[in-house]
Amino acid sequence: MKRVLGLTTTIALVLAVGLPAQAPNFxxxxxxxxxxxxxxxxxxxxxxxxxxxxxxxxxTITQTAADLTVDRQGGMASSKAVYKLDxxxxxxxxxRGGDAKAKARIEGSTLVIESTRAMGEMTMTTREVWxxxxxxxxxxxxxxxxxxxxxxxxxxxxxxTG
Length: 162
Description:
mainly beta, Lipocalin, 10-stranded antiparallel beta sheet, 1 helix, globular
C-alpha cells in the first residue's frame, strides 16, 4: 500500500512539474468600458478619472504561442502592433510620439509589455500588465514614466466576439 501511494505521489509530482503553465488567452474582439476605466489627467483638457473622455476604442487581438497581434480602432485612428511573446524586442507604432521598442512576455496568468519611446530629447517608458479578470474582462494596467512624472491608467475591455 505504501509503495502504491509513493508511486502515485511521484507520478503526480512529475506530471505537475512537467506541464507548462497555461498561457492567458487574449484573442477576440474587445470594446472599451469607459465607466470602469481610469485615465490620468491629460493637461488642460482633462481626460482623467473614470472614462476620461476616451470614446469608443475596440481591440481585435489574435494570439499564437509566438506572438500577439493587436488591431486597435479608436475614433478616426487605427493602429496595429505585433508583440513577440518570447521577450525579444518588437517595434510597435506609437502614435504622435513615433514608434516604440517593446518587449512582451507571459508571466503566469498575465502578459507584461515593457516599452520605451524616444520623442526628441524626451524618453518615456511604459510597463503594461494585461490580465483577464473573474468576469472575463480584459484589464490593461499601465504605468508610464515621463519627464513630468509617473502616469497610471487602467483600461477595462469587455469581450464582443471570439
